[in-house]
Please model this.
Amino acid sequence: MIELAGIEEAARRLAPHLRHTPVLDIGPLPGGDPGSRLLLKLENLQVTGSFKARGATNKVLTLPTTQVSRGLVTASGGNHGLGVAFAGRLAGVPTTIYLPANVPPAKGVKLERWGAKVVWEGEVWDDANRLAERREPNPWTFLELVVRHLPDVPAIRVHHARHIPGHHTRHSSSPSARNRR
Model:
């Protein structure tokens, strides 16, 4: 479990590097408990277009310089790779992102604009991930955690919407709730 102090420390560490994105109070939850409210953290306004830059940048800023200087490597379906590419550019180190064939080419273009080397391998993420681990001599820890800090919120549940044409789905990227003490 991530303690509140760790979240606050990450927020301070990230503040000079990332945008402070707004929280939109949508209002009461239809059918929710009395007094419940729906708050949306607009991470789509983040520098890379998603919250993934927070976790990747926080990880880079907490690793030893000798480890980061070897470069960053990950497999991605897109947004995670953008976060790692941003963190790599910030650290001034080479970054390689392995993408599977099912990722839209536009994601690869965005990654290259952030300075990442893009390697197209495999049909799906699992293939790209396996190949990234096999081909890179020092694969870097895959970064996958959201750093959130919303004042006066007793619990946080992290979700992100994933649009699949013709479907309305919601995918939980971190189904656990963190309760403040």
Summary: The two ends are 12 Å apart (CA to CA). The longest helix spans residues 79-91. Residues 4-50+145-179 form one domain.
